[in-house]
Amino acid sequence: MPFAAIKLFRFRTPGRCLIVLQLVATIVSALVSGDVACAQPKSRLLEVKDESQTYTGKIVAKDAERCFLMDEFGVLTTHHISRLTSFRVIGESFHRVSPSEFRKQLLTEFRSGYDIHVSAHYVVVGKKGKAKAYSTLFEEIYRQVDAFYSIRGFETSAPEFTMVAIVLNTVDEFKEYCGRDQMLWSEDLRGYYSLKSNRVVLYDNPVKLNADNALTAVSKRSISSTSADVSVPDKLTPENLAADQVTLAAMLNGVAGETADTIVHETTHQVGYNIGIHSRIGETPTWVIEGLATVLEAPGIRVRGSSDAADKINTDRLNWFSTEYESRRQPGDLARMVAGDEIFQNQALDAYSSAWAFTYFMTESPARARSYTRYLQILGERDPLQHYTAEERLKDFQSAFGDVSKVEMDFLRSIDRLETP
């Protein structure tokens, strides 16, 4: 059907339902092929409606049952074709909004008590007087994460959309936001990255620092997902300042403790999904996503040229892997983590420490990093709408790394040689 013939369809009578669904599927199929395929920069701007809401954007993926629509702000929505009541082409090309338009939208959401700061890649919402400081931290983490991938041979791209980061003032505001965002809140939840909205959301839980000790509270080993304590190095040197530049920047700007750590972890997720490492559609194995995020929690990994091996180790994850998890480890655990995500639901701390340990093992050796790059390419070439079976996950893993049992033995020997900093 030529695009010029596409009209706004409204069908309500049950007798025509099947025809309507077939027509919608046919036209959506036409819209996402050829000129408007998801990789094309000139995708048409569509309007689709279901029984309750109207959506606009470009189609970025579809199958026989679903289509995925990306709006001008980068918000991703999933639509069952059978539930669409109407659609039409409303523009010959899709345009993402400018950072200033992002700011304008956020001003309608956040008013009293908040500032909004626009930077190169981010629009950041934060407490009055702190949004710019948060923005500096987000941009620095972006730069370091992008550099981590680039120097290891990963192919990255510039983000298509301005990224949004929201640092709320209190846990109560965070809890309320989670409710609006349909995010399951718990007392342990410090922040999250939303695949749907492409936003990082967290709340500020700063360590109480006075002016005298703020300059010396820069030890990266004190910042973890489970502790808000800040230890002070014996001596402030150029070396530990360089290795801890993100944490130092956070302290100097009033961002401390768990807030800084949460920003690092969740921003690592966000950057990975925006520079082409992960896809927001599909089933990327959890160990890959969380492994990279936990590896990048260590400042020495993010800082290019850091020569101190201890700075590259995520102390909390190594401690758990080598002590708490050691008594429970069984041969074949790596294969089970590769094949499925159940361990992340049932043994979260074991899973996170294992994901960190294996990802560290794979990325810190140039030869293994090349295999890891190939593995990410394999993941990226998959049809994101197809279910990723356990058999397929293991097959893809072994096509990049070799026999999983042998890889596990080499991995464990290597990790056992690591010393806790």
Structure, described:
The chain is of the alpha+beta class and 421 residues long. A hairpin with a 5-residue loop joins strand 3 and strand 4 (76-80). The protein has three domains: 3-91, Roll (SH3 type barrels), CATH 2.30.30; 98-277, 3-Layer(aba) Sandwich (Glutaredoxin); 280-421. It has helices at residues 17-31, 99-109, 131-151, 171-180, 238-243, 245-252, 257-274, 286-295, 299-302, 315-324, 333-339, 342-346, 348-363, 366-381, 390-401, 404-416, and strands at 45-49, 54-62, 66-70, 76-80, 86-91, 114-118, 122-127, 163-168, 191-193, 199-203. The strands form two sheets. Strands 4-3-2-1-5 form a five-stranded antiparallel sheet. A five-stranded mixed sheet has the order 6-7-8-10-9, with helices on both faces. Helix 7 packs across helix 8 (286-295) and helix 10 (315-324) crosses helix 13. Residues 1-28, 32-41, 208-244 and 246-252 have low confidence and may be disordered. It is globular. The chain contains 16 helices and ten strands. The termini are far apart.
